[in-house]
Design brief:
single chain, about 110 residues, mainly beta, 6-stranded antiparallel β-sheet, 11 strands, binds zinc ion
Length: about 110
């Protein structure tokens, strides 16, 4: 069972914290830490030391993880940050669906045939 309700490539809305109201795409899910990295959210500057001749030093911007409970999935159908439910379809597939509009978002576990 997945502990994090969002997945890589999901579009999410940030609920709380410094970045509340921002939206972005999930770049990475850190399931064990219950954290996610969202594109353009919680960017931190990292100082990078030059290493050898090929790597230039300088400041690079990189997104730091935020708590997955702070983000909500944006439903592709109704375009709203929505609560996600899990259900089984008639064919046995387990899917994620939007609790706002009821649309199926994607399949989590395809029914074995
Ligand atoms: Zn929806």
């Amino acid at each position: 069972m997945s502990k994090v309700h969002v997945k890589k490539e999901d579009n999410v809305f940030v609920l709380t914290g410094k970045f509340a109201g921002k939206t972005g795409k999930v770049l990475k899910v850190l399931a064990d830490d219950h954290r996610v990295i969202v594109e353009g959210v919680n960017e931190v500057a990292k100082h990078k030391k030059p290493r050898g001749r090929s790597t230039q030093g300088g400041i690079i911007h990189q997104e730091a993880p935020i708590a997955s409970s702070n983000v909500m999935l944006i439903c592709a159908s109704c375009k709203r940050p929505s609560k996600i439910g899990h259900k089984f379809l008639a064919n046995g597939d387990k899917v994620r669906y939007c609790k706002s509009c009821g649309e199926v978002i994607d399949t989590i576990i395809a029914a074995s045939k």
